[in-house]
Amino acid sequence: xxxxxxxxxxxxxxxxxxxxxxxxxxxxxxxxxxxxxxxxxxxxxxxxxxxxxxxxxxxxxxxxxxxxxxxxxxxxxxxxxxxxxxxxxxxxxxxxxxxxxxxxxxxxxxxxxxxxxxx
Amino acid sequence: xxxxxxxxxxxxxxxxxxxxxxxxxxxxxxxxxxxxxxxxxxxxxxxxxxxxxxxxxxxxxxxxxxxxxxxxxxxxxxxxxxxxxxxxxxxxxxxxxxxxxxxxxxx
Lengths: 119, 107
Fold this sequence. Notes:
The complex is a heterodimer of chains A (119) and B (107). Chain A is 0% helix and 54% strand. Chain A is mostly beta strands and 119 residues long. The termini of chain A are far apart. The model of chain A has no long low-confidence stretch (mean pLDDT 97). With 107 residues, chain B is mainly β. Chain B is 0% helix and 50% strand. Chain B is globular, with a radius of gyration of 13 Å. The N and C termini of chain B lie far apart (36 Å). The interface between A and B is medium-sized, with 22 and 25 residues.
């Protein structure tokens, strides 16, 4: 059974750094055909793709956030970590991680977690 | 970046109706087009990949079609559980981009 679960702080202050962890089960982060993506959704708004990482280390970032985002993985822990620096209240959103299959896109989603940026 | 434009932004329909949602890409995406369903307060659910292939476990009432830059999602025989917001996403190019969503409401 494939599962993904996001974890991290629910409240962060402006200018701080957000570190989110996606812990996966039911598949391996070393599988050549699989990767993990991060997507966020500000309250009442549409989905925004942020980043992804594949087993070979291939990474990609949302251009408007590229200078602030870092994605990494720890295959032995089955975890993918996303960091977002210099937070602003506009970064308040529900953050989702999801599994990506090469050629087929996203198939499984985590439940998401709401992160609020406020002083 | 590839822009994804969905229409309509909202749609009212009745139980039993058949509806179609359109997604247009700003350039050819080689059919690397996915559709998702999202209900309030929940994570999206993957419905379709490759423009027309159903994800495992998705009922055949959902169907996708199209190629190049123009794609459609059709839902037949609407049931109360189908009323939700639907998103398209292209995964041909980085950055991956979503449409703005189509909210399907009960008439």
